[in-house]
Amino acid sequence: MYNLKAREGFILYEVLREARDFASKRAPSANTFHIAECWATVLNREYRHGYAILRKRDLTNIYVLLREGPPPAEREKLTTEDAIDHYLEGHREKEIPLTW
After folding, report:
1. Is 13 exposed, middle or buried (0-12, 13-18, 19+ CB in 10 A)?
2. InterPro entries of this UniProt entry (predicted)?
3. I need a labelling partner for 85 at 20 to 30 A (CA). Which of 4, 6, 53, 64 fits?
């Protein structure tokens, strides 16, 4: 459940609802879609007026990937150590082209 009292939670709820409505226009039923991925990029700005620092947070882009069909089975939750190992393993295997 989203925290709809916060502005960011309400915006994310509206975006997901709009994505569902958009998908329902493209397919016979919106109930056949599930959210495969969803993430947001955040832009933080700081304004310095005198000694006070005002921080403003803007959501710049929200990406939603909908897939048709039933959602996959839930996987077991990762511990912190497993998540770190998964992240490092994926980045160690990367090849960066055109490097010296």
Report:
1. middle
2. Ribosomal_uL22_sf
3. 64
